[in-house]
Amino acid sequence: MIHKSLSIVVATGLIGAATLLGAAPALADETENSEPPNVELVLDVSGSMKAADIDGETRIAVAKRAFGKVVDALPENTQLGIRVLGATYPGKNKKVACQDTQQIVPVGPVNAVQAKNAIATLKPTGYTPIGLALKKAAEDLGDTGSIRRIVLITDGEDTCTPPDPCEVARELAAQGTHLVVDTLGLTPDEKTRKQLVCISTATGGTYAAAKSEEELTDRVQQLVDRAATPPPVQPATVTGTADCANAPLLAPGVYTDREKISEHRYYRVAVPSDQELRASVSIALDRPVNPDYGVLLKASTTGGRELVRGVDAGSGRADVLSAGLRWSADEQKADAKASAEAADDDEAAEKAEDASTEVCLIVSNSFAATTAATAPGMPVELSIDLVDASHTPDAPGLGRGFLFLLVVAVAGLIAGILAGWITRYWVATWREN
């Protein structure tokens, strides 16, 4: 998920799993490396950047100045590269024009003079091969295992499909190489905005728009600063299964997966008898889907008996759907202990007191795609935590059964008697006057 990104990113404390039964659980990765991730700026230098509609200046002139300010403000340890698209081929041969993308600054420690000189020579020229540029930018960043971020700045949509940039973004995200694409639209129209939102959503990135030099400078600086700050917890990649028996056993943490349209994915969690399971899931809508859809998170026993269903949750974003649940092992423990005591088995009763309960988490969706393409699956972010159980008070509990009815009846009787006395007193006083 999604995240955030899926952004939908949720950080939870990692809790030891010494009491878990069976195979060792999968663990989420906690980021300990303080080095910033590699970042590459991808700038559209196609012919449309000649338009003089930003405070009377051309888009490319404003973009150059904004880039210069950002480069000057970058921390020395930033690992930055710059790639351009549509910058060199002025001809009409579309096949050639759609291969026009170059890395003008290799990824590495920032050399402000080199970067600004490379940007200063750019002239708006050709087509807009965004899909190819994203593929090449991912190659530029390499696969070091750390977070990699691309910041795409463009004033228009891709003019070279195929490859479709949304499909490219989904394929890159599905590789599980921690690649995030943030997009920035320069005076974007609606078609451009939708394409850039699609690209960023597919990889857990963000979208922003700019219509002035000040906005462009601020937005680029924010994106680069965000890219240079590694997350406190790196979500671990996990693969859910089609049934509970073969599902991965997960410890508390944050996980990423991908789920296809109308699919059910299973995961397992061992919940100690004195703890409560809290889980949430977010799925990013990285492609168009038909109306009336939803996400469901359920917990069940390994035998298939449903324990609890999650409730919908969200922050108002229409491109990310979330659900969450909480479940305590108290009820299971009480049932097992009662059965053991009824059988007069003290050893079994003692084991039931301390036993863990293995729970299946099921993530499902009711999406219907508007196209035939359903692969790769949509990004899923699953957050799992175990906390001390919130025990329900045993007594007296005014909301429980006959005691509650008795209290209501007594209260009604007293209220009726008082009302009668007050009425008789008022009538007697009125007659005397």
Automatic annotation (TrEMBL):
Pfam families referenced in this protein's UniProt entry, alphabetically: VWA_2
Q: Which organism is it from?
A: Actinoplanes siamensis
The record ties this protein, via Gene3D superfamilies, to: von Willebrand factor, type A domain (3.40.50.410)
Q: Where are the transmembrane segments?
A: 402-427
Q: Which UniProt keywords apply?
A: Membrane, Signal, Transmembrane, Transmembrane helix
Span of domain VWFA: 38-227
Q: What protein am I looking at?
A: VWFA domain-containing protein
Check the UniProt entry and state the signal peptide residues, or none.
1-28
Q: Taxonomically, which superkingdom?
A: Bacteria
